[in-house]
Specification:
Elements: H1 2-6, H2 48-51, H3 62-76, H4 86-107, H5 109-119, H6 129-138, H7 151-169, H8 175-208, H9 215-246
Helix pairs in contact: 3-4, 4-5, 5-9, 7-8, 7-9, 8-9
Length: 248
């Protein structure tokens, strides 16, 4: 057993799964494939962090993540199982799909944060463009709360956008209005970048907390990240609306 573990080609072995045995040869298996016979194994129920053998932390070594992704991609690629039996072909497809989804999510810092929050039982406010378009088409009210610190600014900007839309329908343009909207857009973009920087401080706070930390302490950091991401998403959508109306 010690010899098999010392020959493991991947450094990311999920803790607690060392007793699993290969379906083909019966020896100790790695998480995704067997170290002895190389057979792809059935996928284990796991979140994306666990899939890569990572703790649920937000500051990740993305270079290491990328290396592990390409290493696993080579070993789990369906083409390698083209002549294998049907079960292993299916497992290879499932493992490869999970690998790609996990990598795309974890390599992106915002998607990684949103994913961890979902694992913590938090669903962010729906602020996507798809949700906006669906709401417009169906008449449903989209869950979108204006951040309190932006209420006045958002109200003024929306009024200006409506005025500009009306002018465009009449084939008119107001350069002064367009310039004012452009200034507000720049301010929003600066706030957007500021929020992205602020989010990193919450990653550090979260990563310092252990599972033994008081739930109330963890919840405070989690709620700060949720609030920040919702504000960030709202600002992103405002900038998108400005671009659509102005024509950028």
């Amino acid at each position: 057993m010690a010899n098999l573990e010392s020959n493991a080609s991947s450094s990311m072995r999920v803790p607690g799964e060392a007793t699993a045995t290969c379906w083909s040869c019966g020896t100790m298996r790695a998480v995704h494939f067997c170290n002895a016979c190389g057979k792809v194994q059935p996928p284990l129920p796991a979140d994306y962090f666990t899939f890569f053998g990572l703790p649920r932390k937000l500051n990740l070594d993305t270079a290491l993540l990328e290396r592990e992704f390409y290493e696993l991609s080579r070993k789990l690629h369906p083409d390698l199982c083209a002549r294998a039996d049907k079960r292993e072909q299916e497992w290879s497809l499932e493992q490869s799909s999970l690998l790609n989804d996990a990598y795309r999510t974890l390599k992106d810092p915002i998607r990684r944060t949103e994913y961890l929050l979902r694992l913590e039982g938090v669903e962010l406010e729906e602020q996507s463009k798809t949700a906006t378009e669906k709401a417009r088409a169906t008449g449903e009210v989209k869950k979108q709360v204006v951040p309190p610190d932006l209420l006045e600014e958002v109200f003024e900007l929306n009024m200006q956008l409506e005025e500009l839309r009306a002018q465009k329908k009449l084939g008119e343009d107001d350069p002064a209005l367009i310039e004012e909207i452009g200034k507000q857009k720049l301010e929003l973009e600066e706030k957007f970048e500021s929020l992205s920087s602020e989010l990193k401080t919450y990653w550090n706070d979260w990563d310092r907390l252990t599972d033994s930390a008081a739930e109330q302490t963890r919840r405070k950091v989690r709620d700060k990240m949720v609030d920040l991401l919702n504000r960030r998403s709202y600002i992103r959508n405002l900038v998108r609306d400005v671009n659509e109306v102005v024509g950028n």
